[in-house]
Amino acid sequence: MSPPRHDRALVRPHVVTGGRAHPTRNIFDLVTLVIASRTQVAGLSPEKRKVMELCQGGALSVAEVAAHLALPVSVTKVLLSDLVDSGHIVTRASAAEPAEPSDHLLREVLDGLRARL
Amino acid sequence: MGSALVSDRLYVRESVRHSVKILIVGHFAVGKTTLVGALSEIKPLRTEEQMTQVGEAVDDLTGVPEKTTTTVAMDFGRLTLSDDLVLYLFGAPGQERFKALWHDLARGALGALVLADTRRIEESFDVMTLLEERGLPYAVAINEFDGAPMFPEEELRDALDLLPTTPLVRCDARDPASSTQALISLVEYLIESKKRESA
């Protein structure tokens, strides 16, 4: 899809994402865990290869991927979204749901914190 | 500390299937980054986001970019709480002008810990308003800076205009145990609030 001309910012992040400011799907929270599900990176852009390289090693949150690659979170989401679409990346945790956290989840957090004291 | 769950590895442990976040908020230099650093099992990370104004015409080259773009930095850290669960702590700037960032931060967050400084109590109001507008529950932790005046709890509650149920605790953001205790107060409050709602 070719974006309207006025959406093309003259900044690097938009070049990285092919001119898009928004991911194809809105499944990513800052703490959604992502991991590579493939090893081959043929045909991917240099930025996507970097994402894949990082995500081969294990699961990381979207925020961690952004920080390690020194990319804005918004750009990282666009890249990850494309990589999910192409089957290179899978999300591991259905992280923070916009819905209320369950009592069970809150207790797990509480127990985990108490165990650190 | 010293628990088998504590990990300085880059990646989240393999067994972890859930992740949650809590916001650490407050005004400039109140100790957000210090608290995140004291609790995080990884070296705290930083993300930067460029904020542009809504509806801004980016092809207008006559515009001065500095006027329409701001870079916002967020520091965050990670704590593995169980085989299944990791907690992320995000230190978030308290200014109203970072609305877009706040939307992303607050969405799905369990709650927030407001760090306050008794020398600049009134500077905490903005961030508390932001949380209230989003309906995000919070606890307030007074970061005990060396040499900062101590006030009785009632006086602080009045000054902060807290609801009787909102937890107010003291902490030393440099100290992992003290900061953990502040988070525990917040999570206990979240559980109690839930109970009250369903009662």
TrEMBL record, chain A:
Pfam families in UniProt: DUF742
InterPro entries (alphabetical): DUF742
Superkingdom, taxonomy of origin: Bacteria
Descriptive protein name: DUF742 domain-containing protein
TrEMBL record, chain B:
Gene source species: Actinoallomurus iriomotensis
A Pfam short name: ATP_bind_1
Name of the protein described by the UniProt record: ATP/GTP-binding protein
Organism classification: Bacteria, Bacillati, Actinomycetota, Actinomycetes, Streptosporangiales
Domain of life where this protein originates: Bacteria
Molecular function GO terms recorded: GTP binding; hydrolase activity
Family: Belongs to the GPN-loop GTPase family.
UniProt keyword annotation of Signal present: no
Keywords in alphabetical order: GTP-binding, Hydrolase, Nucleotide-binding
